[in-house]
Amino acid sequence: MKNLKYLFIGIFFGVVLTKGEATSWYRMQEMFRFESFHMFAIFMTAIPVGALSLFIIKKLNLKSTEGQPIEMPKKNFNKGTILGSLIFGFGWALTGACPGPLYALIGSGYVVTIATLLAAIAGTWCYAYFQKYLPQ
Amino acid sequence: MELLYKPWPWYVAGPLIGITVPLLLLLGSKSLGISSTLRQVCAACIPANIPFLQYDWRKDSWNLIFVIGIFIGGFLGGYVFANPNPVAISTSTINFLKEHGLNEPSGLIPAELFNWSSLITLKGFLIMIVGGFMVGFGTRYARGCTSGHGILGLSALQWPSLLATASFFLGGILFCRFVLPLILDL
Predict the structure, then answer these.
(1) Closest CA to B35 of A80, A107, A98
(2) Using CA atoms, how far apart are residues A116 and B115, in angstroms rounded to an integer?
């Protein structure tokens, strides 16, 4: 099973998100109200670690363990980068969760989060349906 | 043993989140990004001839396995080894939440907002369903969420990701300041 390793990386990521309380609605309220350093510090340590590892991967021209070349992630800009992100920000403030924590919270026993996850899937579907009418 | 149940400080959790970026790249040339799994579920279950959902979602099925892992990780970190104490948020946040009718924190999320019976109230519907809808709609429109733009995109020094991250923080900050209090008071 070639994909099994992603299960383990996912477990790792889920444990870290949960134990770091990045799945907590309370923590998000605190963050958006600038009343604690906790969440900001998580971002401000995660990003340099990611950036440094990307730098090393590029510098040493590392290949993946499957022998494939590693492509540097590239993100394009369109109007959705701003508009969509603002909408996501509103949803993030309400639910206190981004997509990753939604999956983790269900596992943590907050089963009602399934409703939020289904709503998020519905939101994605509606974006796909109305995409042609939206500014891109 | 007690250590297993304790929450982790930011200087442990933050770097470990960052490590996920090279882990995925080195072990399989995969880019961290979780909101795309929502699109994959749509493409797999309800494609409905929508062009945006007509693609070979199976090629990215690793991502679905990854989020099953996140679910299991949430089970381990938040259920099996759950922190028995409430999340230690700042007193000013607790006071704000109390002013708007919430109890002292317990668990990771407030049970008085997130429960099945409140789904049929206006407040619960707005928070869980409308909120969730905006998360799914917004992240796809933005082509990424906190993981894809905020962690991976910023790590790769992508300026669109910087704009995206700034925008979702701006959205969240404004919403928490001006709208959320009204909803909590419903």
Answers:
(1) A98
(2) 11
How far is CA A18 from each of CA B59, B81, B125, rounded to the nearest angstrom? 28, 10, 25
Per-residue model confidence as pLDDT tens digits over A4-15: 999 999 999 999
CA angle A41, B168, B180 (to 5 degrees): 95
Give per-residue pLDDT as tens, B133-149.
999 999 999 999 999 99
Give which of B134, B149, B152, B162 to mutate to test A binding, by max A Cβ within 10 Å: B134
Tokens of A98: 């981004």
pTM: 0.96
B 61-100 near A (Cβ less than 8 A) = 61-63, 65-79, 81-82, 87, 89-90, 92-93, 96-97
Task: Say whether B160 and A51 touch across the interface (CB within 8 A).
Answer: no
Residue B56 neighbours by CB under 8 Å, 6+ apart = none
Other CB atoms within a 10 A radius of the CB of residue A86 amount to: 24
- Tell me what pLDDT residue B130 has: 98
The span from the CA of B7 to the CA of B130, in Å, is 30
Quote the CA–CA distance of B178 and B183 in Å, as a whole number: 10
Is the Cβ–Cβ distance between B35 and A101 less than 8 Å? Answer: no
What tokens does A87 get?
Answer: 């909408």
Instruction: Tell me how crowded residue B135 is: count the other CB atoms within 10 A of its CB.
Output: 32
Nearest CA in chain B to A79: B142
Q: Is the pLDDT reported for residue A136 higher than 90?
A: no
Q: Which H helix or E strand runs over A96?
A: none
Q: What is the ipTM of this complex?
A: 0.96
